[in-house]
Amino acid sequence: MNILKYNTKRSKVYKLFYAVLPLLLLVSCNKEIENKAHFASTDDIKDDYSEKSYKVAYIVIEGAVGSVVATEATDYNKMPFLASMTSKGLFSWNSIASDATQDITFYADLLTGVKKDKHKVVSDDISGAAFDKYPLIFDRLKKDLGTRTAVFTSNAIVDKLSQNSTIDNKKVLASDEQVVQEAKTELKRDDSNFTLVTLNGADKVGKTQGYGPKSAAYLTALNTVDKQLKEIVGTIESRLNYNSERWLIVVASNRGGTYELDPIQDDHSLYSVPFRNNFVLFYNNQFQYKFIERVDLSDPTYDGSAIRYTGTATSAVIDADKADIYNLGNTVDKEFTIQMKIKFHNRGSLNPTFFSKMGNTGNSDDGWSFIHNGGIGWRLKVKGTQVIDNEVFNLNEWYTLTAKIYNDKGTRKAKVFRNGVLKAEGSINGVQGSSSQSLKLGSGATYGSGASHTITDVRIYNKALPDEYIAANYCQTAVYDDNIYWNDLIGYWPAIEGAGNVLVDKSKSKINFNITGEVSWNAFSERSGSLCPTAPQNLELSTIRSVDAPVLIYNWLGILGTDKFNLDSKVWTPNYSNN
Questions:
Q1: Percent of the chain scored above 70 by pLDDT?
Q2: Are 175 and 199 within 8 A, CB to CB?
Q3: The CATH number of 303-526 is which of 2.40.30.10, 3.30.2130.10, 2.70.150.10, 2.60.120.200?
Q4: Cα–Cα nearest to 69, from 221, 260, 222
């Protein structure tokens, strides 16, 4: 059950949904919620039930290096309580804080959900801050929900950032001990709703005695923080109405700290910059363990969540009036390369279509299509002419299929490749590859049925790529704007969004597929001999970041339609347990 799936307008039905939400969570049967990359645009909704029952504690541990915390967060090291929270947490130890140098910037990231190029906080002088466009979390909650907010800190930076905010209970104190005591008092209140707590003991020690795993004083300071964290969470969990409340507890560090990294841990990437290595954890007593691990740059996996297309129940469609650029034409001057990753789960009967811009592929209609060849191999069909790869597909195995349309000394020809290997070629000279049909992925009007497959990494180039390039690069799972053929892409759909009803086109064309019928997103993380997964262009996005916390907090507390806030937050959704 996806507690973040709010896709309708304000209504009485919606209010009823909120009222039964806890029951829905309890019957979630340990299934992963769909990951909404962008929440649907809706009216903001203030619901009495969510205001009273959904609550947040946001705890910032200053200067806590993520990788050091990861080592200490075990039942036998310095942070056993934080370790216990991971069993019901969604978290990353290898988060990458922004490329800032000032602590006030890191805090602005944590409290706005955007980075410095938007919030404009780059020094202690915050007169130029864009809080009118990107308000601090206290102000957003107060304005949209009327939420009670509280802040307890010993850091003057937090005080300065929030100097113009309306906060119901704000105290700037002399020590972490006082911060914890005041926070506990607040968290005992029936109307406690959003509470920010900052702890700077570890950072103070790190600045004077070192941050790394070899600093005994730093590890001791982390142990103290762990005990303070236990006190705070214990206060929440001892509330009289705790079992009927829904608490999201966010524990994060603002940044890491500088120390000399062991050479064996240094992969020369952003993961190896201790100052930027923070961590983020989302905890709720109904979450399941979910660790967002850093990308293994030496042997990465192909990760994502893709649609399983079964029979004709599901299709991704670009309407005909937007799909003209994918017409192949019938003249030698028009060259193309069409490529996709596909995994066949069921071959189906006869000749099911899985990608087409054609009418009925069982006839000789104008246009083109990719078709299962008798449930065995596959073929490119242009009008009534076919280029066939007859080799049998193994089920549940990734393949890269490529069709190349090119000019060979004045004759128009086509080649088909499987995993970069040329399988067949033939003439399509004068054959009409254009049609007035929509572009369909997954199924189409076809002579055959029952096929089931997963399709990702779909690319269409208005260029015939060299055979050598196809052979060398077919296994790559992504393409970025620094690629030599990027400008020749007229359609690029990674198709691993994991949620929603759209496959986003990353090419310059920006023509999205709309998904029709039954939508089933299936998460995967795989290694395969036919894949050489491409490392993310931006490693920061591969783990949970500081700016990612606000959007989950907003939706937890009932602010919807967060798309319009233009946040830099990426949505991470937890797994739920019925325990």
A1: 89
A2: no
A3: 2.60.120.200
A4: 222
Question: Which residues have C-beta within 8 Å of that of residue 145, sequence separation ≥ 6?
Answer: 46, 51, 557, 558, 559
CB 293 within 8 A of CB 414: no
- The rounded percent of the chain whose pLDDT value lies above 90 is 71
Q: How confident is the model at residue 39 (pLDDT cuts 50, 70, 90)?
A: very low
Burial bucket for residue 72 (CB in 10 Å: 0-12, 13-18, 19+): buried
Name beta bridge partners: 405.
336, 414
- Assess contact for 109 and 98: CB atoms under 8 A: yes
Q: Is the pLDDT of residue 386 over 90?
A: yes
Q: Which two tokens stand for residue 53?
A: 């029952």
Quote the pLDDT of residue 448. 61
- The separation between CA 54 and the C-alpha centre of its own chain, rounded to angstroms, equals 24
Query: If you write DSSP's letter for every residue of 115-161 in order, what string do you get?
Result: -HHHH---SS--TT--TTTS--HHHHHHHHH---EEEEES-HHHHHH
Is 27 within 8 Å of 578 (Cβ atoms)?
A: yes
Question: Tell me, what's the pLDDT at 418?
Answer: 97
- CATH code for the structural domain at 54-296: 3.40.720.10
Token couple for 270:
């952003």
Backbone angles phi, psi at 546, to 5 degrees: -55, -40
Secondary element (H or E) of residue 448: strand 447-449
Q: Where in the chain are the domains?
A: 54-296, 303-526
Q: What is the largest CA-CA distance in the chain?
A: 82
Rounded to two decimals, what is the model's pTM?
0.68
Q: Enter the tokens of residue 26.
A: 């309890």
Q: How far is CA 375 from CA 34, 345, 403, 430, in A?
A: 31, 11, 19, 29
61-80 pLDDT, tens digit each: 999 999 999 999 998 999 99
Q: What tokens appear for 548 in the block?
A: 């990612």
DSSP class of 37? S
Residue 15: the pLDDT is: 36
Query: What's the pLDDT band for 446 if we cut at 50, 70, 90?
Result: low
Q: Which residues on neighbouring strands pair with residue 449, listed in sequence order?
A: 349
Residue type at position 507: S
Of 407, 556, 539, nearest to 92 by C-alpha is 539
